[in-house]
Fold this sequence. Notes:
Blueprint: E1 3-6, H1 16-28, E2 32-38, H2 42-50, E3 54-61, H3 70-80, E4 86-90, H4 93-106, E5 111-114, E6 116-119, E7 122-127, E8 132-137, E9 143-147, E10 163-166, E11 196-200, H5 207-221, E12 224-227, H6 229-233, E13 254-258, H7 264-270, E14 275-280, H8 287-290, E15 293-296, H9 299-309
Parallel strand pairs: 1-2, 1-4, 2-3, 3-10, 4-9, 5-9, 11-12, 11-13, 13-14, 14-15
Antiparallel strand pairs: 6-7, 7-8
Helix pairs in contact: 3-4, 5-9
Amino acid sequence: MPILVIAEHDNASIQGPTLNTVTAGGRIDSNVHVLVVGQSAGQAARAAAQITGVAKVLHADAAGLGESLAENVAAQVLAVAAGYSHILFPATAYGKNVAPRVAAKLDVAQISDITKVIDAETFERPIYAGNAIATVQTSDSVKVLTVRTTAFDAAPETGGGAVVEMVAAVAPSPRCSFVGCEMTKSDRPELTAAKIVVSGGRALSSKEKFDAVLTPLADILGAAMGASRAAVDAGYAPNDWQVGQTGKIVAPQLYIAVGISGAIQHLAGMKDARVIVAINKDPEAPIFQIADYSLHADLFAAVPELVNAL
Length: 310
Ligand code: FAD
């Protein structure tokens, strides 16, 4: 049976997490289909058809589906679900909003945040903030999975040549409507897609110092900025910069943790970074246990020195 991947997109292009989810789908079965639900989303559907490993794109298009409201996307997934053994979503805010609705309606148990496919019924997923890996097996007739995108390589965006098949669009739910969207505009790379992340903790001591110390380093490296939960809770950094168990999961090439102790909940969001640099004045700080490069120093001296040296 084919595998269905639900695309995250902006009606014009496919978002990165969909590419990792296609790779995860391909580990279950080579017959991967992608569902694009939107309004005037032909460009996104055509982009999905170009992804290597995609055999078919289902495209549902109608007025009212353009904002990807979870109620409508879930209804559309259910409308095409028959005939699929697995339905996969990226474990992003988008996927995590839709997948439980689909699983509940199908009366199956969702398996969240898979990091490995062992076979078509058996998956690995992290538990206890990544301190243990659970092997989960399901006999449900349809497997509804969310995929930890950092655990699977992105499928190449080009090289495929799938057919795009229009499917009947569901009527948008009268019980929900799109009110508005406030997007933060930033010249920086998106946190979960960035190759370099500069992240700050409670030690920065104020929003002004957080910005003054870390922004020049992030600018020089072309990095995204992240933060510990303590820094976010204290108002030094916005919510969507939080890295960790209850924040974002990142796996950049380089993660620079500045004045972050390395609590397990923080490590859960960044320990898969390829190279970890930690700057901390406490030689016993747990972050040093996972750091590739440990700088035991006062960040207020070390970071400006680093910026000057760069
Ligand atoms: P601290 O633990 O206070 O560490 C500050 C560090 O800065 C210390 O190591 C100190 O030595 C160092 N320091 C101080 N001054 C300087 C200086 N001048 N120069 C250099 N170093 C200095 N946390 C997250 O980050 N993300 C999450 O998603 C998250 N989710 C959570 C979920 C749950 C259910 C719970 C219970 C907790 C969660 N936390 C999360 C919180 C987590 O447990 C820690 O409290 C938090 O990560 C600590 O942030 P911090 O390292 O910035 O602060």
